[in-house]
Amino acid sequence: ILNVEQSPQSLHVQEGDSTNFTCSFPSSNFYALHWYRWETAKSPEALFVMTLNGDEKKKGRISATLNTKEGYSYLYIKGSQPEDSATYLCASIKAAGNKLTFGGGTRVLVKP
Amino acid sequence: EPEVTQTPSHQVTQMGQEVILRCVPISNHLYFYWYRQILGQKVEFLVSFYNNEISEKSEIFDDQFSVERPDGSNFTLKIRSTKLEDSAMYFCASSLRRVPTYEQYFGPGTRLTVT
Lengths: 112, 115
Description:
Chain A is built from no helices and eleven strands.
């Protein structure tokens, strides 16, 4: 994998359902993975910063896992609510740098 | 809660004109960044700035672009002679440390439209 990729590009979720989506990133020279939540017309908001293989982070109903050896991260939303509707961006950082390389985002729409 | 602010929210300019996009980072942050997102594309890194100098820049950040921290609070991105392909949403970000494990805090963006 040369770039950071996210799938799916978009998904519709029924309120109350759980969902998850993927971020793939180059595993060579990996240092950290950032997840951001971006609502329309607002600033992207940091959710998690993950560095260690096997890392799991949780914030309320949102959690994320990290596999640095195979180069992927999952983000989970449990019991989706309409306010979870946003674009979720992941970005990786390589060692000896601090520029974020973003994926294309997963746009989540939670339907009441 | 402290936040990064950007002005203007939308700037329309004619091709060939100079534009300056302004950002006020979080006050105790030391590292500053510009990113941009062309419509339909990924957010991409432009430049990072620390201690009054550029610490890293992408291949996009050519001689037409410059950054400055003129007064200790503002952080600006100047495009000297805009092109149609410069139309994008420009995001400023700041972080407390130059460590990849620190979050970068983003502003809401400036939408630049070049006609």
